[in-house]
Protein backbone atom coordinates (compact mmCIF):
# COMPACT_ATOMS: atom_id res chain seq x y z
CA UNK A 1 0.00 0.00 0.00
CA UNK A 2 1.16 3.55 -0.75
CA UNK A 3 2.80 5.33 2.15
CA UNK A 4 0.25 8.16 2.27
CA UNK A 5 -2.63 5.69 2.73
CA UNK A 6 -3.43 4.88 6.35
CA UNK A 7 -5.69 1.90 7.01
CA UNK A 8 -7.17 1.97 10.48
CA UNK A 9 -7.18 -1.57 11.72
CA UNK A 10 -8.24 -0.90 15.32
CA UNK A 11 -10.62 -3.69 16.43
CA UNK A 12 -13.40 -1.23 17.36
CA UNK A 13 -13.21 0.36 13.90
CA UNK A 14 -13.18 -3.00 12.12
CA UNK A 15 -16.11 -4.30 14.20
CA UNK A 16 -18.28 -1.24 13.52
CA UNK A 17 -17.33 -1.33 9.84
CA UNK A 18 -18.62 -4.90 9.62
CA UNK A 19 -21.91 -3.71 11.14
CA UNK A 20 -22.40 -0.92 8.59
CA UNK A 21 -21.61 -3.26 5.70
CA UNK A 22 -24.42 -5.58 6.82
CA UNK A 23 -27.50 -5.19 4.61
CA UNK A 24 -29.73 -5.73 7.69
CA UNK A 25 -28.43 -2.60 9.45
CA UNK A 26 -31.15 0.07 9.18
CA UNK A 27 -30.70 3.85 8.85
CA UNK A 28 -30.86 4.66 12.59
CA UNK A 29 -28.14 2.20 13.52
CA UNK A 30 -26.18 3.00 10.34
CA UNK A 31 -26.10 6.72 11.26
CA UNK A 32 -25.03 5.98 14.83
CA UNK A 33 -22.26 3.67 13.67
CA UNK A 34 -20.96 6.13 11.06
CA UNK A 35 -20.80 8.80 13.78
CA UNK A 36 -18.93 6.44 16.12
CA UNK A 37 -16.54 5.38 13.36
CA UNK A 38 -15.81 9.01 12.52
CA UNK A 39 -15.05 9.77 16.15
CA UNK A 40 -12.66 6.84 16.42
CA UNK A 41 -10.96 7.77 13.15
CA UNK A 42 -10.69 11.45 14.18
CA UNK A 43 -8.36 10.29 16.92
CA UNK A 44 -5.88 8.94 14.36
CA UNK A 45 -6.33 11.67 11.72
CA UNK A 46 -5.39 14.33 14.28
CA UNK A 47 -2.34 12.44 15.58
CA UNK A 48 0.14 14.96 14.11
CA UNK A 49 -1.52 18.18 15.28
CA UNK A 50 1.23 20.31 16.81
CA UNK A 51 1.38 20.68 20.59
CA UNK A 52 2.70 23.52 22.71
CA UNK A 53 3.60 23.74 26.35
CA UNK A 54 1.46 25.96 28.56
CA UNK A 55 1.71 26.81 32.22
CA UNK A 56 -1.23 25.82 34.39
CA UNK A 57 -1.93 25.39 38.05
CA UNK A 58 -3.17 22.09 39.46
CA UNK A 59 -4.75 22.03 42.93
CA UNK A 60 -1.21 21.28 44.21
CA UNK A 61 1.26 23.38 42.24
CA UNK A 62 2.13 25.20 39.02
CA UNK A 63 3.25 22.99 36.16
CA UNK A 64 3.84 22.93 32.45
CA UNK A 65 1.54 20.80 30.34
CA UNK A 66 0.77 20.33 26.65
CA UNK A 67 -2.17 21.54 24.60
CA UNK A 68 -2.88 21.75 20.87
CA UNK A 69 -1.16 24.84 19.50
CA UNK A 70 -2.81 27.56 17.40
CA UNK A 71 -3.36 25.34 14.35
CA UNK A 72 -6.92 25.78 13.10
CA UNK A 73 -8.83 22.73 11.92
CA UNK A 74 -11.55 22.74 9.29
CA UNK A 75 -13.72 19.78 8.43
CA UNK A 76 -15.43 19.61 5.07
CA UNK A 77 -18.04 16.94 4.35
CA UNK A 78 -18.89 16.19 0.74
CA UNK A 79 -22.70 16.30 0.57
CA UNK A 80 -24.57 14.37 1.15
CA UNK A 81 -23.04 11.23 2.64
CA UNK A 82 -20.12 13.11 4.22
CA UNK A 83 -22.66 14.79 6.55
CA UNK A 84 -22.93 11.53 8.48
CA UNK A 85 -19.30 11.92 9.57
CA UNK A 86 -19.48 15.50 10.88
CA UNK A 87 -20.86 15.01 14.40
CA UNK A 88 -18.34 12.29 15.28
CA UNK A 89 -15.51 14.63 14.27
CA UNK A 90 -17.00 17.59 16.15
CA UNK A 91 -17.28 15.54 19.35
CA UNK A 92 -13.47 15.33 19.41
CA UNK A 93 -12.66 18.68 17.74
CA UNK A 94 -15.53 20.93 18.87
CA UNK A 95 -13.83 24.16 17.77
CA UNK A 96 -13.38 23.02 14.17
CA UNK A 97 -15.05 25.11 11.49
CA UNK A 98 -17.28 23.19 9.07
CA UNK A 99 -17.35 23.83 5.32
CA UNK A 100 -19.63 22.04 2.85
CA UNK A 101 -19.07 20.91 -0.71
CA UNK A 102 -22.10 19.61 -2.60
CA UNK A 103 -21.27 17.03 -5.24
CA UNK A 104 -23.24 14.21 -6.75
CA UNK A 105 -22.05 11.56 -9.11
CA UNK A 106 -23.84 11.66 -12.44
CA UNK A 107 -25.19 8.12 -12.90
CA UNK A 108 -24.45 8.17 -16.64
CA UNK A 109 -21.00 9.75 -16.83
CA UNK A 110 -20.02 8.83 -13.23
CA UNK A 111 -18.36 12.28 -13.08
CA UNK A 112 -18.92 14.56 -10.05
CA UNK A 113 -21.31 17.49 -10.49
CA UNK A 114 -20.96 20.48 -8.10
CA UNK A 115 -24.10 22.07 -6.67
CA UNK A 116 -22.92 23.81 -3.48
CA UNK A 117 -19.74 25.16 -1.91
CA UNK A 118 -19.39 27.13 1.32
CA UNK A 119 -16.02 27.03 3.04
CA UNK A 120 -14.52 28.54 6.20
CA UNK A 121 -12.28 31.63 5.91
CA UNK A 122 -8.46 31.44 6.30
CA UNK A 123 -8.29 28.24 4.26
CA UNK A 124 -4.51 28.56 3.95
CA UNK A 125 -4.07 28.57 7.76
CA UNK A 126 -6.21 25.54 8.40
CA UNK A 127 -5.58 21.85 8.55
CA UNK A 128 -8.50 20.61 6.45
CA UNK A 129 -10.09 17.20 6.71
CA UNK A 130 -12.32 16.28 3.77
CA UNK A 131 -15.01 13.76 4.74
CA UNK A 132 -16.70 11.24 2.47
CA UNK A 133 -17.53 7.67 3.51
CA UNK A 134 -16.96 6.20 0.04
CA UNK A 135 -13.90 6.61 -2.20
CA UNK A 136 -14.99 4.77 -5.36
CA UNK A 137 -13.62 6.09 -8.68
CA UNK A 138 -12.10 8.99 -6.71
CA UNK A 139 -13.82 11.57 -8.94
CA UNK A 140 -15.71 13.23 -6.07
CA UNK A 141 -12.73 13.26 -3.71
CA UNK A 142 -10.40 14.66 -6.39
CA UNK A 143 -12.91 17.40 -7.24
CA UNK A 144 -13.40 18.18 -3.53
CA UNK A 145 -9.66 18.43 -2.91
CA UNK A 146 -9.25 20.66 -5.98
CA UNK A 147 -11.95 23.04 -4.67
CA UNK A 148 -10.17 23.29 -1.35
CA UNK A 149 -6.83 23.97 -3.03
CA UNK A 150 -8.38 26.59 -5.36
CA UNK A 151 -9.61 28.39 -2.23
CA UNK A 152 -6.10 28.41 -0.81
CA UNK A 153 -5.91 25.21 1.22
CA UNK A 154 -2.33 24.02 1.65
CA UNK A 155 -2.88 21.16 4.04
CA UNK A 156 -5.63 18.64 3.19
CA UNK A 157 -6.34 15.15 4.51
CA UNK A 158 -9.03 12.83 3.16
CA UNK A 159 -10.98 10.64 5.58
CA UNK A 160 -13.24 7.91 4.25
CA UNK A 161 -14.66 4.67 5.57
CA UNK A 162 -14.22 2.40 2.55
CA UNK A 163 -11.87 2.97 -0.38
CA UNK A 164 -11.56 1.14 -3.70
CA UNK A 165 -8.07 0.65 -5.14
CA UNK A 166 -9.17 2.69 -8.18
CA UNK A 167 -10.10 5.68 -5.98
CA UNK A 168 -6.84 5.53 -4.06
CA UNK A 169 -4.89 5.52 -7.34
CA UNK A 170 -6.87 8.50 -8.67
CA UNK A 171 -6.35 10.61 -5.53
CA UNK A 172 -2.67 9.69 -5.20
CA UNK A 173 -2.08 10.59 -8.85
CA UNK A 174 -3.96 13.91 -8.82
CA UNK A 175 -3.05 14.96 -5.27
CA UNK A 176 0.10 13.16 -4.09
CA UNK A 177 0.39 15.56 -1.12
CA UNK A 178 -2.91 14.39 0.42
CA UNK A 179 -2.87 11.73 3.13
CA UNK A 180 -5.77 9.26 2.90
CA UNK A 181 -7.27 7.72 6.04
CA UNK A 182 -9.64 4.80 5.58
CA UNK A 183 -11.00 1.88 7.60
CA UNK A 184 -10.76 -0.52 4.65
CA UNK A 185 -9.52 -0.92 1.11
CA UNK A 186 -11.97 -3.16 -0.72
CA UNK A 187 -11.50 -5.42 -3.74
CA UNK A 188 -12.75 -3.45 -6.73
CA UNK A 189 -15.53 -1.47 -8.38
CA UNK A 190 -18.45 -3.12 -10.18
CA UNK A 191 -19.78 -2.04 -13.61
CA UNK A 192 -21.77 0.82 -12.00
CA UNK A 193 -18.68 2.00 -10.06
CA UNK A 194 -20.04 0.72 -6.74
CA UNK A 195 -17.46 -0.60 -4.31
CA UNK A 196 -17.39 -4.41 -3.92
CA UNK A 197 -18.06 -5.66 -1.28
CA UNK A 198 -18.62 -2.11 0.02
CA UNK A 199 -21.82 -1.18 1.82
CA UNK A 200 -24.08 -0.06 -1.02
CA UNK A 201 -25.08 3.59 -1.43
CA UNK A 202 -23.86 5.41 1.66
CA UNK A 203 -26.17 8.42 1.22
CA UNK A 204 -29.26 6.25 0.79
CA UNK A 205 -28.36 4.11 3.79
CA UNK A 206 -27.72 7.15 6.00
CA UNK A 207 -30.87 9.01 5.08
CA UNK A 208 -33.23 6.13 4.30
CA UNK A 209 -33.79 7.23 0.70
CA UNK A 210 -34.51 4.72 -2.05
C1 LIG B 1 -21.22 8.95 -3.26
C2 LIG B 1 -20.20 9.06 -2.15
C3 LIG B 1 -19.11 9.85 -2.78
C4 LIG B 1 -19.14 9.37 -4.21
C5 LIG B 1 -18.02 8.41 -4.40
O1 LIG B 1 -21.96 10.10 -3.37
O2 LIG B 1 -20.71 9.64 -0.99
O3 LIG B 1 -19.30 11.25 -2.72
O4 LIG B 1 -20.40 8.70 -4.41
O5 LIG B 1 -17.92 8.02 -5.73
P1 LIG B 1 -16.69 8.45 -6.63
O6 LIG B 1 -15.44 8.18 -5.84
O7 LIG B 1 -16.82 7.53 -7.81
O8 LIG B 1 -16.83 9.89 -7.00
P2 LIG B 1 -23.21 10.21 -4.39
O9 LIG B 1 -22.77 10.75 -5.69
O10 LIG B 1 -23.94 8.91 -4.40
O11 LIG B 1 -24.08 11.36 -3.72
P3 LIG B 1 -24.84 11.39 -2.30
O12 LIG B 1 -23.80 11.45 -1.23
O13 LIG B 1 -25.62 12.65 -2.42
O14 LIG B 1 -25.70 10.17 -2.18
N1 LIG C 1 -21.00 5.76 -3.67
C1 LIG C 1 -21.55 4.99 -2.72
O1 LIG C 1 -22.34 5.48 -1.91
N2 LIG C 1 -21.23 3.68 -2.68
C2 LIG C 1 -20.36 3.13 -3.55
O2 LIG C 1 -20.09 1.92 -3.44
C3 LIG C 1 -19.79 3.95 -4.53
C4 LIG C 1 -20.13 5.26 -4.59
Descriptive key words:
single chain, alpha/beta, 6 helices, 31% helix, globular, binds 1-O-pyrophosphono-5-O-phosphono-alpha-D-ribofuranose, binds uracil
Give a structural overview.
This protein has 210 residues and is an alpha/beta fold. Helices cover 31% and strands 30% of the residues. The protein has 6 helices and 15 strands. The chain has helices at residues 11-21, 27-45, 86-92, 139-150, 165-174, 202-207, and strands spanning 5-7, 51-57, 62-68, 72-79, 97-98, 100-105, 112-118, 126-131, 134-135, 156-159, 162-163, 179-182, 184-185, 188-189, 195-196. The strands form 4 sheets. Strands 1, 4, 5, 6, 7, 8, 10 and 12 form an 8-stranded mixed β-sheet that branches. A 3-stranded parallel β-sheet has the order 9-11-13. Helix 1 (11-21) packs antiparallel against helix 2 (27-45) and helix 2 crosses helix 3. Bound molecules: 1-O-pyrophosphono-5-O-phosphono-alpha-D-ribofuranose and uracil. 1-O-pyrophosphono-5-O-phosphono-alpha-D-ribofuranose binds next to strand 6, strand 9, helix 4 and helix 6.
